[in-house]
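Input/output pair, single chain:
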Amino acid sequence: MSYHRQVLDYLHDTYGVNDAKITHGGSHPKLIFTYNNKRCHVTLQRDDDRPTLFSMKRQDIRRLLGPPLGEDLFPEQPTQKRSLDEMTAELQAKAGDLDRIASLPTTAPLVAPREIGQALKGSPVKPAAPSVGSSGLL
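Output:
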């Protein structure tokens, strides 16, 4: 399918444009159409086999026309109204879970890197030597 045909089909299927016409004149063909009672035009590339042409033109059309009519970018989420008693009970249940987790005994010993362990014991810490290449630079 040619690039021009893909653009025409996209306009028809996505935006409901039925009057799109490609006019030739000048160095590039132009696509002229009416959308939302406004006359619009889009400059097309010459028909080419590059696979990215259609995706780039689709972005241009969306930038020009915005989201298709009827497409809601941020649909409203149905909200359930909760009473204060329900929310309080939910918070108390979560707080009870936190208290239960905090009261669990810890069975795993705390493991720290060697340098931190030596520093806490008061032993001098020898920092690891940086790796140096043949040029003497890091």
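The first strand starts at residue 21 and ends at 23. The chain has a mean pLDDT of 78.
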